[in-house]
Specification:
The structure is a single chain. The chain is an alpha+beta fold. A two-stranded antiparallel sheet has the order 1-4. The relative contact order is 0.34. The model has no long low-confidence stretch (mean pLDDT 89).
């Protein structure tokens, strides 16, 4: 689900992450890999200009390790 206004926060399940690094292909501005070859979030909340890229990264993660949490402006 996509919310057009409000913040989008990102969480990586480090247990599920297998280090495929596809998130970097879609949103290198938001994700990086740590020393254990697991994804880490660099930018949180995500700016609106990167929202689509982060949604693509989450939907294309082969192990679904990326969770997106949208908060509408009304409930912020």
């Amino acid at each position: 689900m996509t919310v057009d206004n409000g913040d989008l926060t990102v969480e990586v399940d480090r247990v599920a992450c297998e280090g495929h690094a596809l998130c970097l292909v879609y949103a290198a501005e938001v994700f990086d890999m740590d020393d254990e070859e697991r994804a880490v979030v660099l930018v949180d909340p995500v700016p609106g200009s990167l929202r689509g890229a982060v949604e693509d990264a989450a939907s294309n993660c082969p192990v679904q390790a990326i969770r997106l949490h949208a908060q509408s402006a009304a409930s912020a």
